[in-house]
Structures are given as structure tokens and as C-alpha cells.
């Protein structure tokens, strides 16, 4: 069993709020779950996206740069993350006083990956993020009713402004992870929009990252199948196949739908029991289940921290098992 220990001094005293000081924080990273599914490796010439690794070497990875939404965000937004401390009734591990939190009850998958590899993590993901605000009527700055969100455009822009000051970003030692689509599907279903624009922006941003040295790119396919995100993922796969050929870019494609379908079909084989989703809402832990360690989701639609561990393990399995020459 591994237990990480950290001592936290006097935390923070505001005028009326003074947190208890000088207590040890024990972060129990023991998980009762096991990864009970193997990747389904495909071929580089596949017309549709398929699980593959064209040359990413995790042993060489010293830095991870992450882009995405609440499934990937640790609340850092390009800075140093706060530790995953729970402050009930807030269900989101991290800060007590601002939104620098995780949509889960512990580490998120890309932190687990970084911890496993002892790599530095630069995380630009943010909750609710989409690919391109201008793609959807509900988020378009061109639409007077639109409410823009963080998008892949903004995340890339922030990384390009400050990432090089935070790390040497040695191409062969840096892994870029990208996971978008679920919120795009959500916004599209609400108010319509333009998948061609979203797709082009996704590929443009990959190109911009490549132009700035990205040689190793890991993509997450969405955990549920929807026709538009599937088509997007086919385009991303096909673009990265060309990248491999033209630019020598190594890429891995991890299909989370395969993992989550396997979990849904046979949760007990992974060690899950009880409620598939622990909490009743995203805003409070009150009324939640008593078995978060064996729940698939913690907040509705958001994996529990132990499921995040499986996502990390599954991503590693794809990279290790699906390597093509
Ligand atoms: C850590 O978690 C495991 C699995 O849930 C549990 O068996 C163990 O007792 C926990 N250890 C501590 C120190 O809380
Ligand atoms: C991919 O290549 C294999 C041989 O390596 C071939 O058998 C297969 O038909 C090809 N598939 C496509 C879609 O081109
Ligand atoms: C992967 O990286 C490690 C560490 O740099 C290196 O020792 C190993 O040879 C690399 N493997 C391949 C297949 O390049
Ligand atoms: C992330 O940080 C950048 C730069 O400080 C800031 O402009 C942006 O608003 C932040 N995003 C969020 C969602 O806080
Ligand atoms: C603005 O968005 C709404 C849906 O949120 C849509 O019905 C309307 O057509 C959009 N207007 C324009 C000018 O795109
Ligand atoms: C949404 O945006 C598209 C263009 O991006 C437009 O054609 C459409 O009319 C808009 N409104 C709805 C409700 O889809
Ligand atoms: C390939 O992707 C297209 C578009 O998403 C889809 O219609 C088709 O069923 C997929 N084919 C296979 C074999 O999955
Ligand atoms: C190749 O890399 C350049 C940047 O150096 C990028 O703009 C372009 O999109 C890449 N093309 C492919 C097919 O990967």
C-alpha cells in the first residue's frame, strides 16, 4: 500500500475564516479497482479512428502538457496545482475558496499519468471547455446570446505565451495530451453550430503545437459514441496519420468509449459495486453514496478518482500494447 504524506502548515486566515493548521494530510492512493479490459489495437491505415501508438515512448517522457475539459482539468490553468484536498460540502478536490478545483474526489487521470512517470505536468484544461467558441451558437461571441467558454484556442494561446518559461519542453521528452468533444456535442445539441469549423480549429491547434515542437501527441476519444464527435475523431486520426508520415509526429489514440463500455457491461469485473454515480449533483457532496472508492462516477458525468486511475492505466496500456512500427 502506498500512502503519500505531506505536511501542510498554517493554511490561510481571512478576516472571519481561519482553517485548522498543522495537521498531516494523508492521501490514500490505494485503489480496490483493476483494469479488466485490454485495448483493441488497430492499424495505421484504418479509415476510422482506432487504438494505436505510432512511437510515443513513456519512459522518455519528462513533461506532460495537457489540454481538455473537466475530465482533464486539475484547476491549475497553466500554474502550480493545489493539492487534491476535499472541502465538504464542495465535491471538487482542490481549492476551498476559488474555482481551482478538480471535478473529482482526488487526482485526475493526467495527474496519475504524470505521477506514474514522475513527469512534470503543465495543465491547461478547464471545466466546460470546447474546441472553438465561434463554432457553436450558444458560445459564439458573434451571437448576442452566446456565452463563451474556455476553448482549445485559448488553452493553446496561454501555453504558447508561458509554457516555454515553465519547462525546457524538449520535444522527445514532452508528451502533449488532447481531449475535447463532449462539451462540443452538448453545445451543438442545445443551439446548433458548425462541426466543420470545430474540426478545422482542432487540426489547426494541433498544427500550431507541432510548429512549436510537439512531437508526441496522445488523443482521448470520447467515452460515449455520438455521430459528430466520432466523425471529428476520424478526421483527427487521419490528420495525425499524415503527421506521422510528413512530420514524424508520434501519436497515440486512446478510445475511452472502449473502457467505459467494458465498465458498463461488467462493472464488478473491475471491482465496482453499488452506485454507478456517487453524488446527486455537481454542487454538493451532501446525500452522496458511502462507497466513492467503488463508484464509476463521482459527480454526475465525471469519473471518480479511482476511475481516473483506470483511465491513466488504460492510456498507458494503449501506448505500450498498440505500438506500430
Ligand atoms: C486506503 O484505501 C484502501 C482501499 O479503499 C483501504 O483498504 C485502506 O484501509 C486505506 N488506507 C488508509 C490508511 O486509509
Ligand atoms: C491496411 O493494410 C493491410 C496490410 O497491412 C491491408 O490488409 C488492409 O486491407 C489495409 N486496409 C485499408 C483500409 O487500407
Ligand atoms: C525509450 O526511452 C528510454 C529512456 O530514454 C530509452 O532508454 C529507450 O531506449 C527508449 N525506447 C525506445 C524504443 O526508443
Ligand atoms: C487561465 O489563465 C489565464 C492567464 O492568466 C486567464 O486569462 C484565464 O482567464 C484563466 N482561465 C480561467 C478559466 O480562469
Ligand atoms: C444564436 O444562438 C441561438 C441558439 O442559442 C440560435 O437560435 C440563433 O440562431 C443564433 N443566432 C445567430 C445570429 O447565429
Ligand atoms: C446556428 O449556427 C449556424 C451556423 O453556424 C446557423 O446556420 C444556424 O442557423 C444557427 N442556429 C441554429 C438554431 O442552429
Ligand atoms: C467509420 O466512421 C463513420 C463516420 O463516423 C461511420 O459512419 C462508420 O460506421 C464507421 N465505420 C466503422 C467500421 O466503424
Ligand atoms: C506538420 O507540421 C507543421 C508545423 O511544423 C504543421 O503546421 C502542419 O500542420 C503539420 N502537418 C501535418 C500533416 O502534420
Report on this structure.
This protein has 325 residues and is of the alpha/beta class. The chain is 32% helix and 13% strand. The chain has a single domain (52-322), classed as SGNH hydrolase (Rossmann fold, 3-Layer(aba) Sandwich), CATH 3.40.50.1110. The chain contains eight helices and eight strands. The strands form two sheets. The chain has a six-stranded mixed sheet with strand order 3-8-7-6-4-5, sandwiched between helices. A two-stranded antiparallel sheet has the order 1-2. This is SGNH hydrolase-type esterase domain-containing protein.
Taking Cα atoms only, what radius of gyration do you get, to the nearest Å? 19 Å
* Helix segment tally: 8
Bound molecules: 2-acetamido-2-deoxy-beta-D-glucopyranose
CATH superfamily: SGNH hydrolase
Supply the CATH class.
Alpha Beta
State the secondary-structure class. alpha/beta
The stretches of 5 or more residues where confidence is low (pLDDT under 50) are: 1-18
* Helix and strand sequence: EEEEHEHEHHEHEHHH
Mean pLDDT: 93
Please indicate the percent range of residues in DSSP E strands (runs of 2 or more).
Answer: 5-15%
Major β-sheet, in short? 6 strands, mixed
The structural domain count equals: 1
Chain oligomer state: single chain
What is the distance, rounded to the nearest whole angstrom, between the alpha carbons of the first and last residues?
37 Å
Keywords: Signal
Protein name: SGNH hydrolase-type esterase domain-containing protein
GO molecular function: hydrolase activity, acting on ester bonds
Signal peptide: 1-20
Amino acid at each position: 500500500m502506498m500512502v503519500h504524506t505531506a505536511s501542510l502548515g498554517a493554511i490561510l486566515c481571512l478576516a472571519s475564516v481561519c482553517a485548522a493548521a498543522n495537521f498531516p494530510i494523508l492521501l490514500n492512493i490505494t485503489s480496490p479497482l483493476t483494469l479488466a479490459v485490454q485495448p483493441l489495437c488497430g492499424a495505421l491505415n484504418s479509415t476510422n479512428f482506432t487504438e494505436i501508438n505510432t512511437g510515443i515512448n513513456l519512459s522518455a517522457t519528462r513533461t506532460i502538457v495537457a489540454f481538455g475539459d473537466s475530465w482533464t482539468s486539475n484547476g491549475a490553468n497553466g500554474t502550480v496545482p493545489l493539492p487534491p484536498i476535499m472541502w465538504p460540502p464542495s465535491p471538487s478536490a482542490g481549492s476551498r475558496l476559488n474555482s481551482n478545483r478538480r471535478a473529482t474526489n482526488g487526482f485526475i487521470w493526467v495527474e496519475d499519468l504524470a505521477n506514474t512517470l514522475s513527469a512534470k505536468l503543465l495543465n491547461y484544461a478547464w471545466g466546460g471547455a470546447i474546441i472553438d467558441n465561434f463554432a457553436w451558437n450558444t458560445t459564439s461571441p458573434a451571437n448576442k446570446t452566446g456565452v463563451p467558454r474556455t476553448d482549445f484556442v485559448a488553452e493553446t494561446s496561454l501555453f504558447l505565451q508561458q509554457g516555454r518559461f515553465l519547462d525546457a519542453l524538449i520535444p522527445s521528452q514532452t508528451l502533449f495530451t488532447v481531449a475535447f468533444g463532449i462539451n462540443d456535442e452538448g453545445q451543438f445539441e442545445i443551439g446548433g453550430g458548425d462541426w466543420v469549423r470545430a474540426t478545422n480549429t482542432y487540426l489547426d491547434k494541433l498544427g500550431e503545437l507541432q510548429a512549436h515542437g510537439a512531437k508526441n501527441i496522445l488523443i482521448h476519444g470520447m467515452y460515449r459514441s455520438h455521430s459528430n464527435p466520432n466523425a471529428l475523431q476520424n478526421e483527427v486520426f487521419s490528420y495525425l496519420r499524415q503527421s506521422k508520415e510528413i512530420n514524424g509526429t508520434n501519436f497515440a489514440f486512446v478510445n475511452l468509449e472502449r473502457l467505459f463500455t467494458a465498465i458498463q457491461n461488467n462493472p464488478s469485473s473491475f471491482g465496482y459495486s453499488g452506485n454507478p454515480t456517487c453524488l446527486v449533483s455537481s454542487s454538493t457532496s451532501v446525500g452522496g453514496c458511502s462507497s466513492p472508492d467503488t463508484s464509476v462516477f463521482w459527480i454526475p458525468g465525471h469519473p471518480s478518482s479511482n476511475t481516473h486511475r483506470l483511465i491513466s492505466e488504460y492510456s498507458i496500456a494503449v501506448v505500450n500494447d498498440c505500438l506500430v512500427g
